[in-house]
Structure prediction request, 191 residues.
Amino acid sequence: MGMRTGVLLALIFACGGCGDRTLPPLASASRAGRTDEIRKLVASGADPNERSGVNGWTPLMHAIHKHQIGSAGALLDAGADVNARGRDGSTALMMAAGYGYEDMVALLLARGADAHLQLSDGENALTYAVLGVNDIDRFTAVDCQGGAIRALVDHVPDLKLGGSKRMMRQIAATKLKTCAGFAQLVGSRFP
Prediction:
């Protein structure tokens, strides 16, 4: 290993969770699953919808990123907007679906999440569930998120895949072949 590589690795390991230090306390508590602290912070005036971090996520989105279902429930109880959007236009439901978190998808839908919301290119929560995400912390683009897909289609029977024709071809070329049961779940939902 070269000297520069060694120094870079040492800095990365020494830093640990440096990125979290720039987040507001509510976002940090949400990521860590500290529900008592979430309630206390909101009671003392913290905004449960404040966007923060490099992605401009709400505290609810931070909770979903770290799969903290208790945090998600506490934030929703405290008035978090279940349909708020991050900087890129995505919603908490899109994130949960893309990560394949069936429990989070069910919670968000039960609390009023709108599965029909779309990005400017037409992508929606079902598209996220089908395609997965390319997140460094949880890469699901090669996975089959059958549970999240099922939770969406069971709760929202008229939900169709959204996105470009190119994206639909990509889905058909990959997921229909590699994801057992996928055709039965989504086959009739292509636009």
About this structure: DSSP finds eleven helices and no strands in the chain.
